[in-house]
Amino acid sequence: MLTTHLLGFPRIGSQRELKFAVERFWRGELDEAGLAATGRELRLRHWEWQRAAGLRFVSVGDFSHYDQVLDTTVLLGALPARFGFDAATLDRARYFELARGNAAQPACEMTKWFDTNYHYLKPEYDAATRFDGGPQWLLDELREAKLAGFTPKLQLVGPLTLLKLARVQGLDPLALLARLVPAYVRLLKAALAEGSDWVQLDEPIAGLDLDEKWLAAFAPVYRELAAAHPRILLATYFSGVAERAELLRTLPVAGLHLDLARAPQQLAAFADWPAGKVLSLGIVDGRNVWKTDLDAALATLTPLHSKLGDALWLAPSCSLLHVPVDLEQEDGLALALRDGLAFARQKLDELSTLSRALCLGRSVCFQALEANRAALARFRGQAGRDDAAVAARLAALPELERGLAYPERAALQRTRLQLPLLPSTTIGSFPQTGEIRAKRAAFKRGELDEAGYRAAMQAEIAHAVARQEALGLDVLVHGEAERSDMVDYFAEQLAGVAVCRHGWVQSYGSRCVKPPVIWGDVSRPRAMTVEWTRYAQSLTAKPMKGMLTGPVTLVQWAFVRDDKPRAEVACQMALALRDEVAELDAAGIAAIQIDEPAFREGLPLRRADWPAYLDWAVTAFKLSAAGSRPETQVHTHMCYSEFEDVLPAIAAMDADVITIETSRSAMTLLDAFGVFAYPNEIGPGVYDIHSPRVPPVAEMTALLEKALAVIPAERLWVNPDCGLKTRGWPETEAALANMLEAARVVRRRLAEGGAASAAPALAGAQGAACGCGHPDE
Q1: Domain for residue 75, yes or no?
Q2: Which residue in 46, 119, 257, 690 is the catalytic one?
Q3: Of 135, 453, 523, 572, whose CA is between 20 and 30 Å from 550?
Q4: Does residue 385 lie in a domain region?
């Protein structure tokens, strides 16, 4: 049989066992041995599934208690010096402090893994960084696989990708290769000695726009690594690498992996693949849940198999980290929809069928191939896939603009809202307590009727409003008690979208999300948030924000149908939200937040593809926001992204207020907004909500004063980094109280002339108008 393998398997477990074990460890309810036992049980289960599906190798190195990039830098011994930890003696408690922060140090910076909703932790390197080795956790897992009788393939983030993704201070990142590559050499030699005959090194940066010095580094780096291990599979994914075919063909590695789901056209550039080298083809989509069209895949693979023989390997396009574990758990989905889906375990079976059909003949797989054809036909023909009313609205799109430019809107909004200088708000959600979740679960099980559920959620909303009033926040939110998730909540109410019960995917650390499945044309049958928001506003005289998830994020954080352009799906979503915005506005809601944390995430990896994406992303946001009147203040929120490249597009969205994550970078992300002279109002987060740490007033005051060097005081807001759903009430109130005191301190200093309100260059910017994972239950 042909070699079939994976670039990684989901580590959370089909019932999110890893999540619950990690969180019990954090609470002190599970010791390190118990946490290790859960990890070992999951790895053995996943390896057995891979072997049962006929894969030649099992993947070792795809398991992590938090993040694989953090694991790699820990394995190399290159911990941030500011923590003062000894890498050689690092235990799990301190490992998690790197990810979550502690009383003395904020957590490592978190940002998106390329254009996915997975968040990785940025390594921190400088001229003093040493790569002298850390814990032997990875080699322990390799021994574990061997002892259990599996054939392992070790996988690591490649050295060039690791450097490219790191935050390197004070020197050219490539200058660190002289120290980094020998550390990889030691690892590869150790892996070979432990029985890993193949090592997969992931270099997805090969698909980025790289300058010549980065491209020139590949050959010497891989010459050194190949001398340490004779069988290296260099894995590229998320983008095509056709223009680098000659470079990749001549590298001294034993094999190359290509992502044919994201870039099928690149295969032609590798038609003259050299004899003696493996070509691994990512023929099964590792980023989406749609069933593979096996006939189409075989049409691509058959001529290549005839030419390459055993040198052809089959795999998913990338790690299966990005899809749910097992479709068999989804007993609540319509049968026609299930016919079109394949989760991680089902993708293993697809690889097996393709390998058997190529090696033994299609007649041997007749039943599997016929079942695949029939299932896809039922899926594609299901009712609701295409909606004539939605098509008619798309054919006659309404106005994108809001009637007045930002400066004129801002004047109307100041009169309407009557806010102080440096107005304070939060991003939307408040703690989802055990009581809230129990009521929601009882309602879903039918143990609580609709009236009882509504009363329970109204009580929680009233509780959140009262606490905000007591704290002294200026613009309030209703707390989102009724929402299990910022995407699921809307997906459950939209036509053409399905939500799985167990379709969990890791977003960061222990946080998991259930991406909805957009299978048909999208529309809004009825109002989704208006009643809850109107009720919350009735409890206070202060402005109450209506809270919506934006069209780009609803699309980016979903598994999107692949038979229509994503731009079209986003516009369908925007029209549905536009109707909701208009109803909120008509209900008297003076501020409406349309969150777009995935806006930067969706940016294509190649610059040449940016304009088309940014055009439809901006259009979709403006299409939804234009359902409001000029005097209604439109907010948006973005987090954990590199904003520099998309600032003109963010400005073109023309939101009245944008809130962003900046605390983990100590406001350095805000610098780009200052250089660009961002024209509208902005609220840079002054504390990290993903850490249990409560920053002192002085720390938040210092961050606000840094922000004032970039943004004029009259356009600066005060808020946390992101929603507060994952925190408990005691730490939430303590942090918000400190935040509000910091705002009062800075207001007093401004009134006394003790702080500059803005850099002079920004004084005239006002008239120049032209990404957060959603936590699990």
Answers
A1: no
A2: 690
A3: 453
A4: no
